[in-house]
Specification:
3-stranded antiparallel beta sheet, 148 residues, 9 strands, Ribosomal Protein L9, domain 1, 4-stranded mixed beta sheet, elongated, 2 domains, alpha+beta, Ribosomal Protein L9, domain 2
Length: 148
């Protein structure tokens, strides 16, 4: 069955793509969830409008993500925490703590799932943290942990 995708569907395509899928997959999953519509003559003409709208939204989101990445990479994020004499923290700096600091610095909402931290920060000094703002944009942020 030929359907026109209305939204992004993993491993199938993006909005406006005309794809051929199994009848049951289209009737039971894609169409009821408004992810796709049956491909008719009138609907195929509508595909062009969907594609141009989607491309414009993606381009705008990419430009916005690059601007936020420049703001984040431009200056280090300063975090204070209680630490012992040897420089180890009495606890750790987690992605939740970093998300709050990054939101204040960037001025936009940054979800904790966008921050890639291999393990919580447990020592004073500077650390490099990756922030995925867009599938194509990953900002490297310098985090300075200072004694409180």
């Amino acid at each position: 069955m030929k359907v026109i995708l209305q939204q992004e569907v993993d491993k199938l395509g993006g909005p406006g793509d005309v794809v051929d899928v199994a009848d049951g997959y289209a009737r039971n999953y894609l169409i009821p969830r408004k992810l796709a519509a049956p491909a008719s003559k009138g609907a195929v003409k509508h595909v062009h409008q969907l594609r141009t709208g989607h491309e414009e939204r993606v381009r705008k989101a990419l430009a916005e993500a690059r601007a936020v990445a420049d703001r984040l990479s431009g200056s280090p994020v300063r975090v204070t925490a209680r630490a012992g004499e040897d420089g180890r923290l009495f606890g750790s700096i987690t992605v939740n703590d970093l998300a709050e600091q990054l939101q204040q610095q960037a001025g936009t909402a940054i979800d904790r799932r966008q921050i890639h931290l291999s393990e919580p920060i447990r020592s004073l000094g500077t650390h490099e943290v990756g922030v995925r703002l867009h599938p194509e944009v990953i900002a490297t942020v310098t985090v300075e942990v200072a004694r409180q």
